[in-house]
Amino acid sequence: MPSKTIALLHPGEMGAALGACLVARGLRVLWVSQGRSAATRKRAEAAGLEACETLDRALAAADVVLSVCPPHGALDLARAVAAKKNFRGIFVDANAIAPASAREIGRLIEAAGASFVDGGIIGPPPSAPGRPRLYLCGGAREKIAALFASTHVQAIALDGETGAASALKMAYAAWTKGSTALIAAIRALAQAEGVDANLVEEWKLSQPQPLRESDAVPGKVRKAWRWVAEMEEIAASFEAAGLPGGFHLAAAGIYGRLAAFKDSAAPPPLDEVTEALRKPSPPAKE
User: Identical fold at 5-160 and 167-277?
Assistant: First the structure.
């Protein structure tokens, strides 16, 4: 395999794990240290990534940029790369964004002289073969898929126009994360009306799956803060397809009320989660 240098923007939990897979293949993986937190630095060092102080330097050295960030930051990150006008490699957006957002990013990147690959990640950070799947579409999809050969990441090249990988991610997360928001809200409603114990008993008799899913909610709320924008991107995806997006906008509101659990050291009790849901979100600051 030819030598490649990848600029990973930015090494969060998923990004650092993907970077570690690439490092294990013998690839040089850079990350931009300027303005990043101590926690990010610790993750990057543990993954074997090479610190590069500025975005300019990282782009000048890189053949591939891999963007893995919270959905609300994806467009701004692409704009920052495009504005430098010094990157002529392949930009991979692997964020949980709507197909329309992916296409907008693709236009920005290609106008700046680079190639664009749309990506969508399904599954947890890689810890076993085939987990997660990285879906890719675009002219250079096979080249990017080849970077992950023989790693725990299963890279899958899709046919279709730019946005196909993002559309698949949106459709998948519409259920997995949308249903988590719904089940959490259902438990909060039942508790507010004093029928939660009755609901749990009825689920035991007729629908055990919702009970298992609600029991799993506390383990997921640490990521609620980043799922707000993902629900908004899913809502936009539905609306662009002529479908109502209101369900996932409501899910965004649910996750917004749970955003304070971001730094929880351990999963909170379910009662604490549902209590947070029953409290209105604070008004936005002007």
Answer: no
CA distances from residue 17 to 6, 196, 245 in whole angstroms, order as listed: 14, 39, 32
The model's confidence at residue 284, banded by pLDDT at 50, 70 and 90, is: very low
Task: Write down the mean pLDDT value for the chain.
Answer: 95
Q: How many CB atoms lie within 10 A of CB 242?
A: 6
pLDDT-based confidence at residue 131 (cuts at 50, 70, 90):
confident
Tell me what percent of the chain is helix, strand and coil, each rounded to the nearest 5.
Answer: 55, 15, 30
For domain 167-277, the CATH architecture is Orthogonal Bundle (1.10)
Domain boundaries along the sequence of the chain: 5-160, 167-277
pTM score:
0.94
pLDDT of residue 143: 97
pLDDT tens string 157-176: 999 899 999 999 999 999 99
Strands of the sheet with 154-157, listed across from one edge: 50-52, 28-32, 5-9, 64-67, 90-93, 115-122, 133-137, 154-157
Q: What is 5-160's CATH superfamily?
A: NAD(P)-binding Rossmann-like Domain (3.40.50.720)
The residue whose two tokens read 């890279």 is 155
Query: Are 168 and 120 contacting, i.e. CB atoms less than 8 angstroms apart?
Result: yes
